[in-house]
Structure formats: structure tokens, C-alpha cells
Amino acid sequence: MPLIALCAGDGIGPEVAAEAVRVLKAIDSKYRIGFSFEDAPVGGGAYDKFGTPLPDKSLDTAKRADAVFLGAVGGPKWEKLDYSVRPERGLLGLRSGLDLYANIRPAKMFAPLVAASTLKREVVEGIDLVVVRELTGDIYFGKPRGVEKYAGGKRGVNTMVYTTPEIERIARIAFELARKRRKKVCSVDKANVLETTELWREVVTQTHGAYPDVDLSHMYVDNAAMQLVRNPRQFDVMLTPNLFGDILSDEASMLTGSIGMLPSASLNGTKGMYEPIHGSAPDIAGKGIANPIASVLSVAMMLEYTFGNSPAARDVERAVANVLEKGFRTADIFSEGTAKVSTTRMGDLILKELA
Ligand code: NAD
Question: What is the structure's pLDDT at 84?
């Protein structure tokens, strides 16, 4: 029986997670899958109850589970805590504890929301790209690192480092994903200046040998940042090292409008953690107005990547698209002439489309 660990978290986390669970249960009965669920407290609430943002039991549950759903963690209540027990440490602990090395963030434009983008309609209409970001290597983890004194003052050092197997495994994820899409991978590097990314380009090119049906191109990161706002439709799958992907995936996600719409997956093989990209939104927590769509679309990603159930994933995406098409909006994506609905009402409407 497939097990899903539920980390609802803090702030609007539990509100949006509740809608995600309702959708999972609806899909479960429609497709007769037999999901089971176990709560795995993480974040500030877990700290209050257990004295740690990631109790061992929660990590155990996440390790045993086939997939993890996470709402969001953090909030002002815990901002003064020591760094080592802040809610966000719970999230990082889950990512490293499960060795989730591939971060996948789609940026897809829903036609009825074109006006919500900060860019012109003709630029953003029809965007459908995915950023595949390496998540456990690069300058964030390389050594030596730190700030040290020297005769002239202080000196800060971080080290950009990648090994062949690290590059190969993330490149394979990108090529496999492209095979299910428009069969195009654009690999991002700075191979003209940085030797580490020269290796990145070399290994990506070699790995591509096993995927002759996929089109591979390379782009320097500065150009990629520019092309994303100039002509984003040219991209299908963007493959990036950790640092460049951190920046480009945020840029890509903003193309499509509200942060309340964007799902993500962090994977190791088929094991994955699925979460909306937004935080716990303390400013709107408890008001019942959070947009649950990012969470619901994270469920679609879980169905696709962990459970390999593309029909169910498409079903969820179609339900969301239909609700938007019919003019229903949560407050963050509301515009004149549409109907404003609450978090749970948006959930009800999505379930109705699924039925
Ligand atoms: P945030 O994403 O929580 O909120 C930014 C803005 O977007 C707010 O105005 C918020 O109301 C709005 N927003 C976010 N999600 C929304 C949704 N689903 N529907 C409608 N509006 C939404 O970012 P922040 O304010 O910088 O951070 C708040 C807390 O969340 C902090 O403690 C931060 O550390 C934490 N955080 C957690 C995660 C995570 O759990 N993955 C990610 C980012 C931030």
C-alpha cells in the first residue's frame, strides 16, 4: 500500500495541505490506488511540541514513505530561535536525510491567468517549461568555505565543486523528463569562465549520447537569465547546477504570475518530496484565503513522478485549469470580472471537476 508522509507545517501550510489531501483521497478512490497517510510533524509546530523542527519519528516516516507532501514551514514566532532549531532546518533536514538531489519546478502558464503576469501577454502566453536543478552539490556544499582574516582584512571563500557522477545523475533526470515532453534540454553553465561548469558541459554532452532522440543545447547562465524574460517559450527542460538553478528557477516561476500557483518536486529516483514553492504566508494564515492550487499541482507532480500515474496527474491539472477557466479565483489571483473564493471553496470546485 503506497504510503504518503504528510508534513503540513506552519502558517497556511496546514490550510493548503488539507486541500492537497482531499485531492489525493479523491484520486485514490477514482483510480483505486489504496494510498495510506501518516502525519510527520516538521517546522515550528514540531519544535513547540517536540523541541526540534524535525523529530526523528518524522524523518523515519518520511524515509519509509513513497512520497512526502509538505505544506510550508516557518513564521515570526520562531524567528528568534537559534539557527539550528529554526523551522527551515526541518525542511533542509528532510532534503538531506532523503538525499533529494533533483529539484523540479515547472512554470506553466494557465491561459486565463495571462493577465496576472508582470510581463506582456505575447511573451508569456503558452509558457510551459521545467527547470531541473541539481540540489545537493555545487558552491553551497563545496569546501573550503568560510571567512578568514588575513593581513589586509578579511577574505571570504566558497568552492564550486561537481563530480562526474553528480552531473550524470541529474542530466539523466533532465533527459528522461524531456522524453515525456517536447524532447528539448537546454543545459545552463558558465563554461567560458568556470572550469567546474566546463566539466558540467562535458559530462552533460556525454550523458546525452544515450538520449539521441532528445535535442540538447547549451547556454551561458547570463544569456539564460536574459532569454527567460525575452523569449521563455523557447525552453522545454532547463538543466542547471545548484547555484544557477536557484536564481533561474525563481525567475522562471515569476513569469507565470502568483507564487500561490507554483508546485515543486525534489527527487531521488522515484522517491520525492512535493511542496508548493511558497512559504507559510503568516500575513494571511488563518484567514481561509490562501491559494491551494500550488499544493494541488504538487499532488499532480507526485502522481506523475513517484506513482508513474500520468492519467491521474493530467486529471488533476485539467481540474485546476477548468476551475480557472470558469472564472473562480482566490484573492491572490483575483481580477475584475472573476469570482473570488476561499481556500476550501477552491478545493471544493477542484474536487467537483475531478468527480
Ligand atoms: P511567503 O511565500 O510565505 O509569502 C510571500 C507573499 O506571498 C505573502 O504576501 C503571502 O501572503 C503570499 N502568498 C504565499 N503563498 C500564498 C498562497 N498560497 N496564496 C496566497 N498568497 C500567498 O514568503 P515569506 O513571507 O518570505 O516567508 C514567510 C515564512 O515562510 C518565513 O518564515 C519563511 O522562512 C518561510 N518560508 C518557508 C518556505 C517553505 O516552507 N518551503 C519557503 C519560503 C519561505
Answer: 87
**Rounded to an integer, what distance in angstroms lies between the CA atom of residue 259 and that of residue 281?**
11
Catalytic residue among 189, 190, 211, 332: 190
User: Nearest 5°: CA angle at 240, between 169 and 128?
Assistant: 105
Q: Ligand 1 pocket check: which of 42, 259, 293 to mutate, most ligand atoms within 8 Å of Cβ?
A: 259
Give the domain ranges of the chain.
1-106+261-355, 128-255
Q: What pLDDT does residue 259 have? A: 83
Q: Give me the catalytic one of 39, 140, 326, 352.
A: 140
DSSP 190-208: -TTT-HHHHHHHHHHHHHH
Sheet holding 67-72, edge to edge: 36-39, 3-9, 67-72, 271-276, 263-268, 102-108, 128-134, 237-240, 184-189, 215-220
Using DSSP, state whether 139 is helix, strand or coil. Answer: helix
pLDDT of residue 118: 83
Residues within a 6 A CB radius of ligand 1: 12, 16, 72-75, 88, 91, 259-260, 275, 278-284, 290-291, 294, 332
Q: What is the pLDDT of residues 222-262, one digit of tens each?
A: 999 999 999 999 999 999 999 999 899 888 888 887 789 98
Phi and psi angles of residue 102, each rounded to the nearest 5 degrees, phi first: -120, 115
Task: Kindly compute the dihedral angle of the four CA atoms of residues 225, 226, 231, 235, in this order, to the nearest 10 degrees.
Answer: -30
Write the residue with the smallest CA distance to atom 4 of ligand 1: 281
Q: Which CATH number is associated with domain 128-255?
A: 3.40.718.10
30, 222, 326, 340: which one is catalytic? 222
Mean of pLDDT values over 90-101: 92
Specify whether 31 is catalytic: no
Name the CATH superfamily, with its identifier, for domain 1-106+261-355: Isopropylmalate Dehydrogenase (3.40.718.10)
